[in-house]
Amino acid sequence: MNDATITGEDMRLCVCCGGFVIAIKGQTKTYLVGNPDDLNLKSGDKFPIALKIDWYIDSSHCGNYIKITRFKRLP
Description:
Shape: globular
Strand content: over 45%
Distance between the termini: 16 Å
Helix content: under 10%
Number of strands: 5
Low-confidence stretches: none
Number of domains: 1
Radius of gyration: 12 Å
Largest sheet: 5 strands, antiparallel
Structural class: mainly beta
C-alpha cells in the first residue's frame, strides 16, 4: 500500500476536473479521486487526510483520475 494524502476538493470547473485531490508519496504529480463515498469522507472531515492506498490509473475517465481499490485512514 502507498502512503497518500487527500489535500482537499478540486473546485475547478472543467470537463476533466472535480472530486478530491490526492498526493501519493513517490509520485511527481497529484491525482483526482471522484467518489468520496468510496473513501468514507464525511462533511465535517478536515483536510489533509492521511491514508494508505492501493490504486491504479482510471483509464475510463479523462484527466488524472485514479481508482482506489483498498484504503486505510491513518490517525
